[in-house]
Amino acid sequence: MKKKTHDNSADTLALLGGKPVGRVQSPPFPQFSARAKRRVVELLDTGHTVGLGKHDKIIREAEDAISRYHGGLYCLGTSSGHGALQMALAGLEIGPGDEVITTPFTWGASISCILHQGAIPIFADIDRKTGLIDPNSIEAVITKRTRAILAVHIFGQPAPMSRIMKIAAKHGLVVVEDGSQAHGATIGGRMVGGFGHAAGFSCMGGKLLATTEAGYMVTPDEDVYWKACLLSQHMGRSPDAGFPDRLRPYVDSLVYTYRLNPVNAVLLTEQLKKLDREIEARRTNVDSLRENLSDSPFLSIPIYPKTVRPSFHLLTMSFNARRAGISRDTYIAALKAEGLPVFSYVPAPIPDWHRLHWKGYQGPRILWMDALKRNGIDYTKSEVPNCRYKIAHSVEMGFNFTRPAPRLMERAGEIVRKVDHAIRDLRAWEAGRQ
Ligand SMILES: Cc1ncc(COP(=O)(O)O)c(C=O)c1O
Predict the structure, then answer these.
(1) Relative to the CA of 154, which ligand 1 atom is closest?
(2) CA–CA separation, 35 and 404 (whole Å)
(3) Does 381 reside within a domain?
(4) What is this structure's pTM?
(5) Whether residues 115 and 148 fall in one domain
(6) Residue at a domain's end among 222, 249, 272
(7) Helix (H, G, I), strand (E, B) or coil at 155
(8) How far is the CA of 81 from the centre of ligand 1 (A)?
(9) What is the mean pLDDT of residues 158-173?
(10) If you measure from the C-alpha of residue 82 to the centroid of ligand 1, how many angstroms do you get, rounded to a whole number?
């Protein structure tokens, strides 16, 4: 049952000059334990600021903890999520000319990791409610050059991995998961990052497992792990136990500098200890918000199958613009003015972005243009109607509510009720602006 703390639904909207309901503000994020801070100072005091692999005990401690979290997968800590994803592709030897099928609805780094390998992103379509890649649209874009599928668990929602893995097996493809927004999300009790052949995760300061800037790659395949190591940092982790002799001739410093530093390794170790607790609180808060929004005719939270447990890095919702008779942007403006921190996350389908179009491109020179041109890639032909729909109707909300926050979720419901109640005023306001 929806909770009514105060019925202000007849009040003038803040967007139209009335008094706002009040901020639905999460506490500062990320927060670090006293132990984490003490350990960072210790590293700085002792000059322990570089660590090149598992022979460094601080790096090993973090990577072992992450590996345990992911059920024993090999783990390579990195300086960013982008680096982790690129090294996942490198470890799988995805390279020049290979096509990688992926989503048009994500953060750009899910795509630029492919481009930085000289490979070609090819866009499938998405589900209109969740924004996750739609397996039905993957097979239509498979060609003889397709080598991989890169699935993104956007907003902490797990992509439909069992169907993706079936398609991959049928066509002999490898699968990379981008779990940057989805640490700890599960399908049938299995954690994302453990379905594909490799996965990359971001641990920058805004993510579920937040440090300053960091990431990690995980893989069930030892060979993939060492090949990724070889390219990710100087010496390619060759001093570590188990480094394969057959890779020794290729150890040098012709590498990317994607190494994890000990300061972030300590933060990873310490932050991981509270990750599950924080994810549970996020879930509790989404349940509570769902209840508070249950009467909204215009705004809804996706419903997930019972087996799926998102981790809610951000919350994605759908706005019914046809029923409301106003644009999504007007609705967002009204909610924001009342104090709800909502926005639209993806500005346009990625195949529309300027830096993927070599025809008529006037911007600064960029690594991948030649490859796109040589391969005759024309992204204007990408058919992603569901992605366009999602972008026009999507409402996202920052969701760093890492402790149960029933009052704030009630306030969010109050804001939505107030705006919904005044939808006629918003129609008039929008019409007056045209
Ligand atoms: C889905 C997704 N993939 C990749 C990245 C890249 O991570 P990073 O910024 O750590 O390189 C991010 C976040 O920034 C992301 O949200």
Answers:
(1) 1
(2) 23
(3) no
(4) 0.97
(5) yes
(6) 272
(7) helix
(8) 5
(9) 98
(10) 6
